[in-house]
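Quarterly update from the structural biology core.
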Amino acid sequence: NIPTFTKTQNFKMVKVWYEPPPFGPRTSLNRPAYGTSGDVGPKWVVKLAKQRSGPVIAGFVTAFIGLAYIPLMNTKLPYTFSPEYQAATRAYMRYHNMNPIWGISSKQARAADDH
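Predicted structure, tokenized:
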């Protein structure tokens, strides 16, 4: 019950002209491309849109980090950063034998602190 084809098939070659979309690759025919199309908007936005994205993103991230640091410039560090508090924390950890194999309560750490 295997079908056999006795008639040979004739293939006809046709030419296809490809015309890319008017707004560039990966765009739709009924809406504009992503980004600023036709240089619409402020000149600095158009200029940024035409640059490579890596340096633009790095610049904005650096600027926002700088803006976020401004309120922290004149603040004091928390009391947990003081040397006395850190020494008390280490003593507490030793007393309770925390991290006895490789940490603060190990023989190597105790020998390094006792010299």
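Helices lie at 43-50, 53-69, 83-95, 107-114.
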